[in-house]
């Protein structure tokens, strides 16, 4: 069996490994293995093939991977998570809310809540809007 075909097999295995990881590491090494394969088909000795693999892999890891990774991550939409995702959501008052406290249901969860504006109250069943989350308390305003 030609050594170049063994390098091609290594490239395929590394590319398959990338499918499991997704960190753009194995795919860069797979390109390096293609470089080793190319060197083998051009008649380079084993040390030349290994050198080609190493050089191509280092260039791919140092120069190409950061650019591709940055580009991939910038294409992902940003989503608020945890309590930041609740800001601006509607809720339903479960237990009367005033400036001191109360309960509100937001996205299926019950939160302690208080009114943003001093003196404002909300009766059970009223619709409110989450202004912000402060600790474990939703600060709410009149919703619609």
Task: List the main descriptive attributes of the protein structure presented here.
144 residues; alpha+beta; 2 domains; 3 helices; 5 strands; 22% strand
How is this fold's topology laid out?
Elements lengths: L2 H19 L4 H16 L4 H30 L14 E6 L7 E4 L2 E7 L11 E8 L2 E6 L2
Parallel strand pairs: 3-5
Antiparallel strand pairs: 1-2, 1-4, 2-3, 4-5
Structural summary, described in words:
- Helices cover 45% and strands 22% of the residues.
- The protein is an alpha+beta fold and 144 residues long.
- It folds into 2 domains: 3-75, no CATH class; 82-142, Nucleic acid-binding proteins (OB fold (Dihydrolipoamide Acetyltransferase, E2P)), CATH 2.40.50.
- The protein has a 5-stranded mixed barrel with strand order 1-2-3-5-4.
- Strand 2 (103-106) and strand 3 (109-115) form a beta hairpin.
- It is rod-shaped and about 85 Å long.
- The model has no long low-confidence stretch (mean pLDDT 89).
Strand order of the largest sheet: 1-2-3-5-4
The count of DSSP E runs of length 2 or more, i.e. the number of strands, is 5
Percent of residues in β-strands: 15-25%
Structural class: alpha+beta
Distance between the ends: 74 Å
Which outline best applies?
rod-shaped
**Helical stretch tally:** 3
What is the H/E order?
HHHEEEEE
* Weakly predicted, low-confidence segments: none
For the biggest sheet, the summary is: 5 strands, mixed, barrel
How much helical structure, as a percent, in the residues? 40-55%
Radius of gyration: 29 Å
Mean pLDDT: 89
How many structural units, i.e. domains? 2
């Amino acid at each position: 069996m030609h050594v170049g075909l063994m390098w091609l097999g290594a490239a395929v295995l590394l590319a398959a490994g990338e499918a499991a990881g997704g960190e753009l590491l194995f795919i860069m090494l797979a390109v390096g293995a293609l470089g080793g394969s190319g060197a083998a088909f051009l008649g380079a000795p084993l040390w030349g093939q290994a050198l080609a693999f190493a050089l191509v892999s280092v260039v791919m890891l140092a120069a190409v991977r950061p650019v591709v990774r940055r580009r991939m991550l910038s294409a992902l939409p940003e989503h608020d998570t945890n309590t930041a995702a609740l800001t601006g959501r509607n809720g339903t008052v479960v237990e009367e809310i005033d400036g001191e406290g109360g309960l509100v249901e937001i996205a299926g969860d019950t939160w302690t809540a208080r009114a943003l504006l001093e003196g404002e109250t909300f009766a059970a069943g009223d619709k409110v809007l989450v202004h912000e989350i402060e600790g474990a308390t939703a600060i709410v305003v009149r919703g619609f």
